[in-house]
Write a structure and sequence with these properties.
The chain has 223 residues and is an alpha/beta fold. It is built from nine helices and seven strands. α4 links the parallel β2 and β3. Bound molecules: S-adenosylmethionine.
Length: 223
């Protein structure tokens, strides 16, 4: 793990992040909620890539509204494993930068039921620490969205760091565990599994820890 991880996470938990929003991300938030009835529990597939996981999640949770977000229009537009007519109706794909999208969700007062960060770009070089989601200034907003947060990676350092960052924010023990992908949820998961690589994940029910957590994890930001 990166030696500056704790310092970096603590700084982001204690300092405001005020990067201005880009209009297309505001539009993306509106588009992602246009088909939502305002009542169905929300699932966010953050960095959904080609969106296979979003489709699978929408099929697994038919009473939820599932949002797949990726910054790559090209990936979002790639052919899906089902014909258009067979795609679940309880989901939507939007192109957005998560750095804005997550914060806009917080501003809108949204709370998630489930939140997936599946095989994020690892940014493995030492100088890349700040680009890993748990060491990015947007991380406290990810936590404020609540729900069951799950991160998977084939790079153990990423999930170990993710668990440490979550533990720092919540004051609770959070563990990284080995993961067997019997039914891969994403193309990256399938690729890594089929090439014999080990997979890891961190799962944390943020709603269960929020009561005793630091202000960074409270939905209202209050101490
Ligand atoms: C390694 S891919 C994993 C895709 C998918 N979750 C999977 O497992 O197959 C990481 C994805 O995160 C997306 N991504 C990276 N940074 C992003 C950002 N700031 N906003 C939105 N998407 C982002 C990339 O476009 C890419 O599709």
């Amino acid at each position: 793990m990166h030696e500056k991880l704790a310092q970096c996470v603590s700084r982001h938990l204690s300092q405001p992040f005020r990067k201005p929003y880009v209009q297309y991300n505001r539009d993306a938030l509106d588009a992602s909620l246009a088909g939502w009835d305002g009542r169905a529990p929300l699932i966010l597939d953050a960095g959904c890539g080609v969106g296979h996981s979003t489709i699978q999640l929408a099929r697994s949770y038919p009473d939820h509204w599932v949002i797949g977000v990726d910054q790559s229009e090209d990936r979002l537009n790639r052919r899906k494993p089902y014909p258009e007519a067979l795609l679940p109706r309880n989901m939507v794909f939007v192109r957005a930068d998560l750095v804005d999208y997550w914060r806009l969700c917080c501003d809108a007062g949204l709370q998630l039921a489930r939140h997936y960060i599946l095989y994020p770009n690892p940014w493995p070089k030492i100088g890349h620490l700040g680009r890993r989601w748990h060491a990015h200034p947007v991380f406290p907003f990810v936590l404020r969205l609540g729900g069951v947060l799950e991160c998977r990676s084939n790079w153990r350092v990423y999930t170990d760091e993710f668990a440490v960052a979550l533990a720092l924010a919540s004051g609770r023990d959070v563990a990284c565990e080995d993961y067997e992908a019997a039914t891969p949820l994403t193309p990256f998961e399938r690729k890594y599994r089929d090439s014999g690589q080990s997979l890891y994940r961190v799962i944390c029910d943020l709603d269960a820890v929020v009561a005793g957590a630091s202000c960074a994890m409270r939905p209202d930001g209050a101490v």
